[in-house]
Amino acid sequence: MGPQQAGCPPLSAGPADWRRSGGLKWTFHDDDVLAAWVAEMDFGLAPAVGVALHDAIERGLTGYPYPEAEEATARAAVGFWANRFGWDVDSAWVFPVPDVIEGLRRAIVHLTRPGSPVVLHSPVYFPFFSMVERAGRDLIEARSSRDEEGRYTLNLDAIDRALDEGAGCVVLCNPWNPTGRVLSRAELSELVSMVAGHDARIISDEVHSPITYRDHDHLPVARLDPERVITVTSASKAWNLPGLKCAQVALTAADDREVWSSYYTPDKVGVGTLGLIANATAYEEGREWLTATMETLEGNRDLLAEMVAEHLPRAQHTPSEGTYLAWIDLSEYGLEDPGSFLLERGRVAVTGGEPFGTGASQFVRFNFATRPDVLVEMVRRMGEAVSVV
Predict the structure, then answer these.
(1) Strands, E, within the chain: which ranges?
(2) pLDDT, tens digit (0-9, with 9 covering 90-100), for 52-85
(3) Same domain for 116 and 252?
(4) Are 177 and 291 members of one domain?
(5) What are phi and psi of 96, to 5 degrees?
(6) Which of 184, 222, 293, 348 falls between 20 and 30 A from 5, CA-CA?
């Protein structure tokens, strides 16, 4: 069963329809540009989420968030986590925040050693960098390693040095935007042990956790050390809800819950009421839609690998283990700014690698959550653009 049968927009919908619908992804650039940049899918809403939002509007639920909605979202989230990841969390330990980035920032400010630097394992989701600045902390970049096949691993030596220098936390991104990695139990265990040895914290962004492919399962790192780990996630990526401003912070340490509850009184939470309703519905009633969507994403992931090999033969691309994002190394083409080049010459909007961290300027992040034939045309255009260099 594909997304159409599960209630996604018909697969006949395409770029012109998406532009008419509005939204950032397909209206930011000119009409002849194909959009593979911002992390949104072209599959619309799960039907159950749409019904819930329409019902909320009809009931006039556009005021401030209320305890019943917050509790319902927490219950739905922990039910999904238990079913999907075998992670049992008390719903009373789950707190709403406007989005994942704000949840991470608040965790840095309130739940790590005052004034301590923050470690980022680059390349990593670029808003993390400004988030650390807004948290009022210094940043230590631990540039990650790649094996001969281009597969990224955490640079534990660099992280260890950063912790030696006094860093109070590591902000983890798993599944890893932009590299597409799903970190293994062994990797996570090593990281947890290292962080524990420095009496530091892990603040884990797990927003892409529902999106993993065959032979790769997401392990919430808090399962390994619930006292040391703070988890921030949302239904926003897996169910296309980022504009509704709702995420969850799971605090599995009692001291964290005490600190958070004493500071984040209702007037400081800032979550959206419709976001709570949408997240709760997605977690509870959107699993069939997600399963169908994952079938399409997995097909696209494999198709992208074939297309890159054919049309971008000098590129290095390791198929993603999770997320609907691909991280493509175009170093062999010698482009000064690959993202701008592909936009100007190929009329394909990707995200250039420069903002993701040191050494990433020759990469592009490619969003493959679209219709398969649109994906084919995107890569064909990219190949044609670089064929002249």
Answers:
(1) 34-35, 94-97, 118-122, 139-143, 145-146, 152-153, 169-173, 201-205, 229-233, 247-251, 316-317, 325-329, 348-349, 351-352, 363-367
(2) 999 999 999 999 999 999 999 999 999 999 999 9
(3) yes
(4) no
(5) -80, 145
(6) 348
